[in-house]
Design goal:
Helix 15 (about 260-270) packs across helix 16 and helix 19 (about 360-385) runs parallel beside helix 21 (about 430-460). Strand 2 (about 215-220) and strand 3 form a beta hairpin. This protein folds into 3 domains: about 5-125, no CATH class; about 190-290, CBS-domain (Roll); about 320-490, Orthogonal Bundle (Tetracycline Repressor, domain 2), CATH 1.10.357.20. It has helices at about 20-45, 50-75, 75-85, 90-100, 100-110, 115-120, 125-135, 140-145, 150-160, 160-170, 180, 195-205, 230-235, 245, 260-270, 290-310, 320-350, 350-355, 360-385, 395-425, 430-460, 465-490, and strands spanning about 190, 215-220, 225-230, 255, 275-280, 285-290. It contains 22 helices and 6 strands. With about 500 residues, it is mainly alpha-helical.
């Protein structure tokens, strides 16, 4: 997300400790500190020389806090973010109080998850937040602006130079799934008529090149993108040549308002390190780098996993009971209603089940395999949509293909279970009902596995959100109805 990736991860020097080990060490130090501080406090309470005991308690507390702070000071901000996310709220705030500094606060706030960031910000006063925000680049500040109080953003706006203020406004104008939301403004621009020697002298004036810089962008006097000069070519080419002679067309130009998924696919397809971002007039407005793309892909993957489980948003695992309840109740309510409906389907056939008890043992198999098959289909469709391989116009072809797969699976696995049912219950007709019920339920699962996500896509909704819950509901109710209905018709 920023240039902090250049710092040494885990610990400094050659001692590259994995972040999991760092978490274990920090947790052990916290527990030991609390234990020692508790014992010191107890001795102070029972001591005859109260003043001396209080001094000893204060000294012990300072020594232990200093040891923990020394450990934390050697960690990369991203590792500290990981540790903060893995600690219960009271221990998280204890560690946060130790690592807080104007230079590091902003970097850590950018790295932590949205849910954890909220708990950290709530523990800071306005002055601390303003000081932390002022250390961030415009794109980083825009990423956390939604979580900051309005008075903090107002103070930050007033403190920024005019050009940075405009960059921040631009960055905040994009939705989070747009290329502009991933863009930074640290691109290096040169004109086509200068020589490579001039470009090299210009680069040497930087104290440090922007992170992930692998090319310089060539623009005309109106900042229209003409091409790029890769560093690999810049270093080996004759310094006397002009930029125009060695520049190459940019393999990828990203529009600032296009979907960020398109940028992720371009980076994966062409193995990019950075790519220029242009407006509708082909003017260079910034760049996207591979570290931003990796963050976006990881976040999108996490969101899809949460959505498939029916969670409304990312959740702090140590959040309060009430917040966790608010995040989870919606799809649980939907699931409860669908489960109740499935139970009423079973209730309709209570007489059939009472007359043939084997139905109660076999019907979960029909519903379960239908749910698994439907979720497989939905997962494939959602993945294909995310990769841009499927659009709403492909629905009919996908339905035909998935129905054929379901028919083959139904005949094969339905046949297997039909034979098992015949051998267990010595009833040939029950086995045939099992074959037919599993085949029909797999066909229903395949149909719904395509229709549900494609319908969501048609209406502009995320096809991953709640699809598995809906598929399970349909295949459970449908499976029970199909199996028990066929059994009632042919067996009872």
């Amino acid at each position: 997300m920023s240039e902090i990736a250049d710092k040494t991860p885990a610990e400094g020097g050659d001692a590259r400790v994995r972040v999991e080990d760092a978490l274990a060490e920090v947790t052990a130090l916290i527990r030991r500190n609390r234990l020692v501080e508790g014992l010191a406090h107890e001795q102070a309470v029972h001591a005859t020389d109260t003043r001396r005991a209080e001094l000893v308690e204060s000294l012990v507390t300072r020594q232990n806090r200093a040891a923990l702070q020394h450990k934390l000071d050697r960690l990369h901000p991203a590792d500290i973010a990981y540790i903060l996310e893995a600690l219960p709220l009271d221990e998280r705030l204890y560690v946060w109080d130790l690592v807080k500094s104007a230079e590091r606060d902003g970097e850590i706030l950018v790295e932590v998850s949205d849910a954890v960031r909220e708990s950290l910000i709530s523990s800071m006063d306005t002055d601390e937040l303003v000081a932390a925000a002022e250390t961030l680049e415009a794109d980083e500040l825009a990423a956390i602006a939604e979580d900051l109080p309005q008075e903090v953003m107002d103070d930050v706006f007033r403190s920024l130079p005019i050009d940075e203020r405009e960059q921040l406004r631009a960055a905040m104008s994009f939705e989070e799934d747009m290329v502009g939301a991933l863009m930074d403004f640290e691109d290096i621009q040169v004109r086509p008529d200068v020589t490579l020697e001039v470009v090299l002298r210009y680069l040497r004036r930087f104290d440090e090149l922007p992170s992930q810089t692998d090319q310089v962008f060539v623009v005309d006097r109106h900042e229209k993108l003409l091409g790029a000069v890769p560093f690999a070519k810049l270093i080996v080419a004759d310094p006397g040549k002009s930029v125009a002679e060695v520049m190459v067309p940019s393999r990828v130009k990203l529009l600032q308002h296009e979907n960020a998924d398109a940028a992720a696919r371009a980076f994966e397809r062409y193995d990019l390190v950075s790519a220029p971002v242009v407006d509708t007039n082909d003017r260079l407005v910034g760049r996207v780098t591979v570290d931003e793309i990796l963050d976006f892909v990881r976040q999108r993957g996490e969101e899809e996993v949460l959505a498939q489980a029916g969670l409304r948003e990312e959740e702090d695992v140590f959040a309060s009971v009430w917040k966790s309840f608010q995040n989870r109740w919606t799809w649980l309510a939907v699931n409860l209603m669908t489960a109740f409906f499935a139970s009423r389907v079973i209730g309709v056939f209570e007489g059939s089940i009472a007359r043939l008890v084997a139905l109660a043992a076999l019907m979960p198999i029909v519903a379960g395999i239908g749910g698994n098959s439907g979720n497989q289909t939905t997962t494939m469709i959602v993945r294909a949509v995310a990769l841009g391989q499927v659009t709403k116009d492909h629905a009919a072809k996908l339905i035909r293909k998935e129905l054929q797969v379901a028919l083959l699976n139904g005949l094969v696995w339905g046949g297997v279970m039909g034979l098992v049912a015949m051998m267990l219950y010595k009833n040939v007709m029950l086995g045939l009902v099992m074959v037919l019920a599993m085949t029909l339920n797999l066909l229903l699962a395949a149909l719904m596995g395509v229709v549900i996500p494609m319908t969501m896509l048609r209406f502009g909704r995320d096809p991953a959100v709640g699809s598995s819950v809906l598929i399970t509901a349909v295949t459970d109710s449908g499976g029970f109805f199909i199996f028990l209905g066929l059994a009632t018709l042919f067996l009872v």
